[in-house]
């Protein structure tokens, strides 16, 4: 779906506002026209010319509209003499020449003060007369016919104009209100959601997420907030997990030290007080004391090594190393141990060199810990794969086995200190080997992961989609537990 920007929304709202205003103007004009038609339909035009007022009984003629505008009517006889005046005559002439009448009637209002119209009629006595109507020029301009309040029609026109103006004003104000309300809702609704989510997050509710639809600018804030909340929640969960792991580690250290120390203490006291008379039993006690002391020594050494790896200041003695030769040497070192346990080793290492900068001593310990873990916690007859896979984007070392597997509930914490296998495996070792291996790999810039066979590398191995000529033809479908050390390439 195409994202909408705030600028686009405001522009669309403004265009809508303008269109509504144009519609309001058209509606107001239509209302004005309708009002004028309705008000003027029964209204007679004002009688302002001689033709309209002249009549045989000239003394009773109606000059109301003419007088309203300040004009009057004169009746001339055949000699152009004024014989009758109706209204307030404002000129002094009571007799006109033919030339005067011609000029008054030929150039009406042409710079003159009065507008003159004439009409001939026959009176009741049978004599011919001329009716002259004189109106001030300023009062008979066409534009004033519609606005002069002295005329009834003009009053109706003005009322219609005022009503149309107020209609337009009401529509204008209503449109402004609706436009501002609409725009406010489109902006305030996502802002309200953002504010509520921030307040909930500030209150410690890290599982809060923003969920609203709005313009792209608000969606960017929403997505950034949700990403931040997810990271904070993950950090809190990781902190809780680390605290639990630390507490568990203290408990495990106490337990793992208490048991052998108690045995050493009890057996030593028994031997010191000469409580054991049987020589064979004495020998067994001494061997037990030795084995437990060696266990405590190994546990202390592993704890010290783990503590050193936690300090970033601890450097590595890196050297460019052929990983293929390195893994072959390690496999040879552990061959006797595998043979004694009945473990079947399998190598999948390329014939050519695979060069990588590593600390040989530390990496030997890391890979050895994983191999020892696979040998120690699997029954005889188990196959253990040691593989090396060099790809364009990374280099992977794989230690896999088809043994009893690792319980699902401890897969997530398998690299924490003192985490041991479930009941289907023996509980030998200090429980620090994989934790130390993970720390060493991290110090090298790599990552150690546990894969159940669903990962990308394993799938590529099973599907045979590695690069041609890589020399890898090992059947990995029989393996169920994969420890993968992966080193990414900086230039990949």
Notable traits:
single chain; alpha+beta; Beta-Lactamase; 4 domains; five-stranded mixed sheet; four-stranded antiparallel sheet; 12 helices
Précis, in short:
The protein has 492 residues and is of the alpha+beta class.
Strand content: 5-15%
Question: Radius of gyration in whole Å, from Cα?
Answer: 55 Å
Count of discrete structural domains: 4
CATH superfamily grouping of the largest domain: Histidine kinase-like ATPase, C-terminal domain
The low-confidence parts are 142-147, 422-426
Fraction of residues in helix? 40-55%
Distance between the termini: 33 Å
What is the element string, with H for helices and E for strands?
HHHEEHEEHHHHEHEEHEEHEHE
Question: What does this molecule look like?
Answer:
The chain is an alpha+beta fold and 492 residues long. It has 4 domains: 6-42 and 156-189; 50-143, Beta-Lactamase (2-Layer Sandwich), CATH 3.30.450; 216-310, Helix Hairpins (Orthogonal Bundle), CATH 1.10.287.130; 319-488, Heat Shock Protein 90, CATH 3.30.565. Helix content is 51%, strand content 14%. The chain is built from 12 helices and 11 strands. It has helices at 6-40, 50-53, 64-68, 98-106, 142-145, 152-202, 216-272, 279-310, 323-341, 360-376, 433-443, 456-463, and strands spanning 72-76, 82-87, 114-122, 128-136, 319-322, 344-348, 355-358, 383-390, 394-401, 447-451, 481-488. The strands form 3 sheets. Strands 6-8-9-11-10 form a 5-stranded mixed beta sheet. A 4-stranded antiparallel beta sheet has the order 2-1-4-3.
